[in-house]
Design a protein that fits this description.
The chain is 44% helix and 18% strand. The protein has 298 residues and is of the alpha/beta class.
């Protein structure tokens, strides 16, 4: 199959490209920087250098493909000039237009847990809106991948652990957090891309369900701090902490709302109704080794 992958060689796209290449598929990886070209080609894939903000480029790249994987690039939450909603909506609409114009019939879109919610999900609400746009496409089969909380999001707590000796947030603690490894997401996406589908479907991906306390215990063991604790803080305390380290206030507010929805159970209510029958292979204890390596470098 001829498959197009967006996301350059990121945490999901790189293992996804490798997995599909190993199965003999013809892979094109979209990247915005020419610096990625040789690395992509060294994997055995073709490089398409351009921007997801360019509908013409996307349409030309998608044309003739058997399947396409689409994702929203990560944004800099510390950029005071970033309009996250506009950033996300523009790219989502560009994908929808390019899919329609190119005639591609099989798409996998990286959405998120909580995307079923029209309100109360904070920054996740933008995925609800993009799913709605893509759902309007006719004669296109789409899998909406809804991964849970990414392992590498825990890296954001390294400075806090070093300076304060604990993890503090308005979620976690005694409540479950469904964690997921990008490797497990990539494996699920690869499976969807090569599996025929008629219509639209939602697929959740998770690797393990742990409380915040269990999460802290696993990370603590890995970094040599077996007494590491996860402390539950108020929404206001969490918001003030995010703003204090330089995060854009509007985005910080959206994150806090998302975290609060996770703690209350609202964010994951549809996940628990439709949780995957089999969880991913990469557990937090596996990722904790990588976490510890990064922790010790900082």
């Amino acid at each position: 199959m001829k498959i197009i992958i967006t996301g350059s060689l990121g945490n999901i796209s790189k293992p996804l490209a490798k997995a599909l290449l190993n199965e003999g598929h013809q892979i094109t990886v979209i990247a915005s920087s020419t610096e990625r070209k040789s690395e992509i080609e060294n994997l055995g894939a073709q490089a398409a250098i351009g921007s997801v903000n360019d509908v013409t480029f996307l349409t030309e790249t998608f044309t003739g493909a058997d399947a396409v994987y689409c994702m929203i690039p990560r944004a800099n939450y510390f950029d005071p000039n970033l309009d996250l909603d506009a950033f996300t909506h523009t790219i989502g609409n560009n994908y929808a237009e390019a899919i329609a114009k190119s005639g591609v019939k099989r798409v996998v879109f990286l959405s998120s847990i909580g995307a079923h919610l029209e309100k109360g999900s904070g920054i996740i609400q933008r995925y609800n809106e993009i799913e709605a746009v893509l759902n309007k496409l006719s004669d296109v089969s789409i899998t909406f991948m809804r991964p849970t909380s990414f392992h590498y999001n825990l890296l954001a707590y390294i400075t806090m652990i070093k300076n304060q000796g604990f993890i503090a947030a308005n979620y976690g603690a005694d409540q479950l957090i469904p964690w997921v490894s990008p490797k497990d997401i990539a494996e699920a996406i690869a499976e969807e891309l090569i599996t025929p589908l008629d219509g639209k479907k939602i697929r959740y991906v998770a690797s393990e369900e742990l409380s915040g306390d269990q999460t802290a215990e696993i990370l603590g063991e890995a970094i040599g701090n077996p007494d590491l604790k996860w402390k539950l803080t108020s929404d206001e305390e969490t918001l003030n902490g995010l703003i204090a380290v330089g995060m854009q206030p509007k985005i910080a507010k959206g994150l806090v709302e998302m975290y609060a929805a996770l703690y209350s159970g609202l964010l994951a209510e549809d996940y628990y109704k439709n949780r995957p029958a089999v969880l991913g292979k990469t557990k937090l204890a596996d990722y904790a080794k990588e976490f510890a390596s990064i922790f010790n470098q900082n």
